[in-house]
Amino acid sequence: MSDDFDRSVFINCPFDPDYAPILQATLFCVVALGFIPRIATETVDSGQVRLEKIKRLITASRYSIHDLSRCEATERGERYRLNMPFELGVDYGCRQFAGAHWATKNILILEERPFRYQAALSDLAGCDIAAHGADFQIAVRKVRNWLAQVAGTETMGPRRILDRYEDFQAWHYERQIALGFSEDDIRDYPTFELLDAMKDWVRRLAETA
């Protein structure tokens, strides 16, 4: 078992532009609380089979966040996305059947609207689903409170996390502009580099505390 297993949080979520504010705030929340976010876009390798990558990230993480907010088509002819519920199923199977330390895995399921998932995933009836209403601040609160419960994190409240996230965004924006990035470059910034920037900022903050 990796030494990082107990601090790793697998994040399974949409990657579309509308969801980006929630994803980025969630990543910062996880980093600010001292955990390691694990996400499919943390590395870019076109030769790696995506399902194998997902399996590796799931088995390396005690904690998992699955957001099912894109499981419904929004317009005629559009198909709803099955990747998120599929990966939730893989994760649940890992916890139920892999044995050993994987039996201690904890899972948080998020949705944009409460109870919507039941139309497509009735097997989840009776499970606690946390709704965020497409609001990144609510998502941070849900993630923080869950980690506080299942992992015994420090008592930093959601408001402090959000204030620090705002400070990080200003610091990151100014740094990227100084380095020659355009507005479009910053919006299209690779996830793994953004994560490195978050870790760097949180580390700097801790050193000056």
What does this protein look like?
- The protein has 209 residues and is an alpha/beta fold.
- It has one domain (5-204): Rossmann fold.
- Helix content is 47%, strand content 11%.
- The protein has seven helices and five strands.
- It has a five-stranded parallel β-sheet, with helices on both faces.
- The longest helix is centred in the last third of the chain and has 21 residues, at 158-178.
- It starts with 7 loop residues before the first strand and ends with a helix.
- The relative contact order is 0.15.
- The model has no long low-confidence stretch (mean pLDDT 87).
Q: Could you name the CATH topology?
A: Rossmann fold
Distance between the termini: 33 Å
Task: Report the CATH C-level class.
Answer: Alpha Beta
* Beta-strand segment tally: 5
As for the number of domains, it is 1
Oligomer type: single chain
* Structural class by helix and strand composition: alpha/beta
Beta fraction of the residues? Answer: 5-15%
Question: What radius of gyration results from the CA coordinates?
Answer: 17 Å
Give the neighbour order of strands across the main sheet. Answer: 2-1-3-4-5
Low-confidence segments, given as residue ranges, are none
Written as H for each helix and E for each strand, in order along the chain, the element string is EHEHEHEEHHHH
Average pLDDT confidence is 87
Q: What sort of overall outline do the alpha carbons produce when their principal axes are compared? A: globular
What share of the residues lie within helices? 40-55%
Examine the secondary-structure arrangement and name the CATH architecture. 3-Layer(aba) Sandwich
Q: Characterize the largest beta sheet: strand count, sense, and whether it forms a barrel.
A: 5 strands, parallel
